[in-house]
Amino acid sequence: MTKVVCPGSFDPVTNGHLDIVNRASRLFDEVVVAVLVNESKTGLFTVEERLDLLDRATEHLPNVSTASFTGLLVDFCTTHGVDAIVKGLRAVTDFDYELQMAQMNGSLTEVDTLFIPTTPEYSFLASSLVKEVAKHGGDVSALVPDFVDAELKAKYA
Ligand code: PNS
């Protein structure tokens, strides 16, 4: 049984995140999508709201579950018996920081990080940009699930 974690802020989940989670669910026995609880940063969505949106977006994937975590990702991996961290790579600009985090996490507990290249149609996609566009009334319906689009509209109404 190989159990992996897809960690992130997911404020909110986008089709880019779901591309990675879907593909991870085909490659590994168990996938945990873990939302970071960042006490020093208030998001648009609460952690509970983010988890609810993730649950709805992954309900068709029986081997995917969701969780939240505080503190270090490597501690979450140890506590939950996670074998590897799975991250999406959108572009080479992601690589420097992702490599640094992967090596730091590997040095702390020897947990491996595996990178999945993002599908090109989502290579520009980031939650921050989705929020920026939605905030100003732009159409993000092709970039997030329908119910996330609806929640964004409600937040910015
Ligand atoms: O979606 P994001 O904001 O890019 O996700 C970043 C995340 C949550 C994966 C990263 O910040 C993280 O793992 N934070 C937990 C704290 C931690 O372990 N820091 C050391 C990383 S080397």
Description of the structure:
This protein is α/β, with parallel strands linked by helices and 157 residues long. The chain has a single domain, classed as Rossmann fold. It is built from 6 helices and 5 strands, in the order βαβαβαβαβαα. A 5-stranded parallel sheet has the order 3-2-1-4-5, sandwiched between helices. The protein is globular. The chain binds 4'-phosphopantetheine.
How are the elements arranged and paired?
Blueprint: E1 3-8, H1 15-27, E2 30-36, H2 47-57, E3 64-69, H3 73-79, E4 84-89, H4 92-109, E5 112-117, H5 127-135, H6 146-155
Parallel strand pairs: 1-2, 1-4, 2-3, 4-5
Bound molecules: 4'-phosphopantetheine.
4'-phosphopantetheine is lined by residues 7-9, 36, 72-73, 101, 104-105.
Features:
157 residues; Rossmann fold; 5 strands; globular
CATH level 4 superfamily: HUPs
Measured on Cα atoms, how large is the radius of gyration? 15 Å
Which cofactors or ions or other ligands sit in this model?
4'-phosphopantetheine
By CATH reckoning, the class would read Alpha Beta
**Chain-averaged pLDDT:** 97
Structural class: alpha/beta
**Count of distinct strands:** 5
Task: State the order of secondary-structure elements, H for helix, E for strand.
Answer: EHEHEHEHEHH
- The strands making up the biggest β-sheet line up spatially as 3-2-1-4-5
Q: How much of the sequence is in beta strands?
A: 15-25%
